[in-house]
Amino acid sequence: QRGSVSNFYNLSYTIPWFLDRNQTVGFSIFNNDLTYIDIDERRKGASLIYGRAIGIFDSWSVAYTYEDVHSGYPVQGAPIPPGQPVPPAAISRVDGTTSSFTPGYRYDSRNDPFDPTQGSAFSAALQVAGGPLGGTSYFLKPTIGGTTYIPFLRHKYFALHGELGYIATFGGRELPPFERFLIGDPSVRGFGIGRIVPLHDNNTVFVDDQGRLLGGTKYFIGNVEYIFAQAGPVKLLA
Question: How far is CA 62 from the centre of its chain?
């Protein structure tokens, strides 16, 4: 997947019925580039996953992921004296490795995986990085999210969505800026990737001692949409 904002390269292979049982094994190798609000972030690594069905609609899984992360953050400089040219933006590099283990649960009863109109989907995961797993990042990151679709009149329906996340460090390590939460599209329509960031009371962004932009350590999102017209892939909604 190539574009002006993101370049994602991913090679993965999955066996959905491993050993003729309702269990999944797979691996993925990736190299992802993403540029948003002047932040340049590259993540490359690999992951292994094992999953097993519980019932008709739900399953659990465990995944191990190793990432090598290289990020560039714009640094806020000193005020420019009147009449002086604007200097080029200063970039601060942040590098690190994340070795993590993530158990998760998923429930999915939607009637269509790509264009659902009824049913529900729910997922919960706890990413544990560092400690005996190695790497430079030590954190716990629980996340929960769910969406339900409620039919209302003919070819119309409501979509209710909610998600939340939290991250905390351990072992006396600082949280690297590339693991903090920056919110935006596609979770919130009308905002670009990473455009929603925490602000001080005076509407200034949070930065560290080097002037690098900091995201949040917790977030919550709630969406309510009413889809009232649909023609193929095109929808009208409020």
Answer: 18
Cα of first residue to Cα of last residue in the chain, in angstroms, is 29
Distance CA 128, CA 135 (A): 11
- φ, ψ at 132 (rounded to 5°): -65, -15
User: Rounded distance, CA 93 to CA 82, Å?
Assistant: 29
pLDDT in tens, 198-236: 998 988 888 888 888 889 999 999 999 999 888 888 889
Q: Which residue has the tokens 């933006």?
A: 89
The reply to whether omega before 116 is within 30° of 0 (cis) is no
**Against a cut of 0.85, is the pTM above it?**
yes
Question: How far is residue 33's CA from residue 208's CA, in Å, rounded to a whole number?
Answer: 23
**Cβ count near 143 (within 10 Å):** 18
Q: Which amino acid is at 36?
A: Y
